[in-house]
What does this fold into?
Amino acid sequence: MANLPVYTIAIDAPPEKVWPLVGDLSRQSEWSPKPYRVEWRSGEPNAVGSTFRSIGWVPQEKEHVMEGVVKVCEPMQLFEVTTHDDKEEWTNRYELTPTGSGTTVTKTVIWPSMTGVKALARSAVFALYVNGAMRKGLSMLKAKAEADA
It folds into this structure.
């Protein structure tokens, strides 16, 4: 799992203010730079094993549908979901670390292994479209959490 995209941001708000925005999948739309929504399919929302459908932006598709499951939900610490479409599976992991009176949020994107041209193409897409959106989303999370703190 080398070369996974990892994004980190320091937020001047305690984990108690940050967690509700990260650990509630439905609230992630509040800090998404692109339109995003979640429909819960089964289980208790945000609980491990719960399934959902997400609809949101990916390069070249504004209303991309993915099916997902909550893999980890450790309040104030770790939230992880895995989603898939008909082509691949992705995992988004959010780790919260208390830092003094604030919180460091680390987002890791875990994707399937690829080699050759496919790996180069994915890296190019991330460089051109996704990295900026990921950073913007975490900046929006920071602004929202700090405003609510």
In short: The mean pLDDT is 89. The beta strands are 6-11, 36-42, 51-58, 61-74, 78-84, 89-99, 102-110. Residues 6-148 form a domain with the Alpha-D-Glucose-1,6-Bisphosphate; Chain A, domain 4 fold (CATH 3.30.530.20). Residues 53 and 67 are 5 Å apart (CA to CA).
